[in-house]
Amino acid sequence: MRPVLLSGALHYFRVLPEQWPHRLAMLRAMGLDTVETYLAWNLHEPERGRFVLGGRADVGRFLDLAADAGLDAIVRPGPYICAEWDNGGLPSWLLADRSARLRCHDRAYLGHVARYFDAVLPAVVERQRTRGGNVVMVQVENEYGAYGTDRRYLEWVRDALRERGVDVPLRTSDPPTDYVLAGGVVPGVAAAVNFGHDPETAFATLARYRPDDPPMCMEFWDGWFDHWGERHSTRDAADAANVLERILATGASVNLYMAHGGTNFGTTAGANLGGDESTGAYQPTVTSYDYNAPIDERGAPTAKFHAFREVLAKYQARAIPEPEAMPPVLPAGTVRLDETLRLLDVPPAKVAEAVVPPTFEELGLHHGLVLYRTRVPGPRGAHDLHLDGLADRAHVYIDGALAAVLERSGETSAPVGVPGGSATLEILVESMGRVNYGPGLGDRKGLVGGVRHARQFLHGWTAATYPVDDISHLPWGRRDRAGRGPVFHRGVLDVGEPRDGYLALPDWTKGYAWVNGFCLGRYWDRGPQRTLYVPWPLLRRGANELVVLELDGVADPVAEIRTTPDLGAHRFRRTRCRTVRS
Ligand code: GLA
């Protein structure tokens, strides 16, 4: 039996548009005939009612380029997508609306979803196979059964897609676990399963629920992602190729998750909560989404690519093109970032006053930093200062002096005293990714549970926001003053020919890096990721601006360009994947 779809995941939102044609060509060269992408709601509607469908968000163009590359497409519009993407793709502004209940048949939430679907689905609908295009399948929600049991909601999403003109086959997708499938399948929609191993059992489980559905693995997890502070995950190529072969031998369709992972640029990375029920310690996801996929972060074929190509060739009726030769990378070098600017000398984007500390979402801040300030009346002894619900990391200053650095899922309290009449308490909070999976979805940022000194809540705050997405307004050239808080550093990267490169910040601690104003993402000396991918389209011949915002301090502000990536010390995992117990 010939499998129906040989598909691979490639998210347009994790690759720069200039590189879409190359990555799509690499999928074809691996032996695939279909590309699968989610749609990222928070990319398309960054502010309520403001829709973006051009540039990096031009999914229509991505689908057309896929067609040009000889690829059909599976589209997974969510609205929830998981994907290690901030908030599972749900816009953070949704969390400011405390009345909206996520991922269920809730009027406020569905109203937002309806507007989003109205805006993005036309680009998909007009490209369906039924209208002469290349879109051959659309997914309903994402692993819904791993989250809830609201059948009415799933039916609403199914009907919302159909009402807007989606008429190609629909699928749900869930891990092959009884309680998950019980919550995830929906009448009138074929089901698919997601797994990393044991395809025979997975398809047998699926058949118990849906004996008539053509078998499909919507996510074959051929690699895995990484969290800050953990080891780098890899999966052995031969092991993954063996499972791929067994999937295809059953006659099932497959979608490789991922064919090419790409990068969580800027502040787009999500996070997990640990433990079997995804309710434990906070685990922010790293910037790279290399995923140990067959096509690596810069688009180069790996050993897994060649192993998969051999397997796919047995099932692919069409001729498989050779992969293009990869161009060279930037030469190794160093850049001094001598110019400095204190973050707290930059005018904040917004200042608000409130009796309790407002969340980032209430302040209209997607990600970045917020300086919360209050007066603590004294005198008082050294009691513990508690940042309840801290999300995610805070520098605490008493009268301008650093008193503690606190962290979610770490220490969130520190002893603080006010010997005199009163003191100024400032708490600079940095957000990391929003949880994208499980019961922790809807992860608000800031001082979410308020601030207590011993048992006493501290009231009366001002909050100043410092976004990190756009740094074009930074007032460089100010005379540097001594002071507190994070520091921007700036230097010039001289480039001959624009090429891919890898940015390393060996002496630095934690922060954000930008090339010519584009935020590459977060870095952290905790690892495992040690280098940030710098894609060639960001560079120009000659002088390029390199900016780093260092949160904790650097002795020698030197950045390195390296010729190879360093994603950290790895460990092979035969099957690191969702632990969903029966
Ligand atoms: C699930 C989700 C995906 C992704 C993978 C892990 O299968 O559906 O979006 O989060 O897990 O990478």
From TrEMBL:
<protein>
    <submittedName>
        <fullName>Beta-galactosidase</fullName>
    </submittedName>
</protein>
<dbReference type="Pfam" id="PF01301">
    <property type="entry name" value="Glyco_hydro_35"/>
</dbReference>
<keyword id="KW-0378">Hydrolase</keyword>
<keyword id="KW-0326">Glycosidase</keyword>
<dbReference type="InterPro" id="IPR048913">
    <property type="entry name" value="BetaGal_gal-bd"/>
</dbReference>
<dbReference type="InterPro" id="IPR031330">
    <property type="entry name" value="Gly_Hdrlase_35_cat"/>
</dbReference>
<dbReference type="Pfam" id="PF21467">
    <property type="entry name" value="BetaGal_gal-bd"/>
</dbReference>
<feature type="active site" description="Proton donor">
    <location>
        <position position="143"/>
    </location>
</feature>
<dbReference type="Pfam" id="PF21317">
    <property type="entry name" value="BetaGal_ABD_1"/>
</dbReference>
<dbReference type="InterPro" id="IPR008979">
    <property type="entry name" value="Galactose-bd-like_sf"/>
</dbReference>
<dbReference type="InterPro" id="IPR017853">
    <property type="entry name" value="GH"/>
</dbReference>
<dbReference type="GO" id="GO:0005975">
    <property type="term" value="P:carbohydrate metabolic process"/>
</dbReference>
<feature type="domain" description="Beta-galactosidase galactose-binding">
    <location>
        <begin position="486"/>
        <end position="544"/>
    </location>
</feature>
<feature type="domain" description="Beta-galactosidase 1-like first all-beta">
    <location>
        <begin position="357"/>
        <end position="464"/>
    </location>
</feature>
<dbReference type="InterPro" id="IPR048912">
    <property type="entry name" value="BetaGal1-like_ABD1"/>
</dbReference>
<dbReference type="GO" id="GO:0004565">
    <property type="term" value="F:beta-galactosidase activity"/>
</dbReference>
<feature type="domain" description="Glycoside hydrolase 35 catalytic">
    <location>
        <begin position="3"/>
        <end position="314"/>
    </location>
</feature>
<dbReference type="InterPro" id="IPR001944">
    <property type="entry name" value="Glycoside_Hdrlase_35"/>
</dbReference>
<feature type="active site" description="Nucleophile">
    <location>
        <position position="219"/>
    </location>
</feature>
<dbReference type="InterPro" id="IPR026283">
    <property type="entry name" value="B-gal_1-like"/>
</dbReference>
<comment type="similarity">
    <text>Belongs to the glycosyl hydrolase 35 family.</text>
</comment>
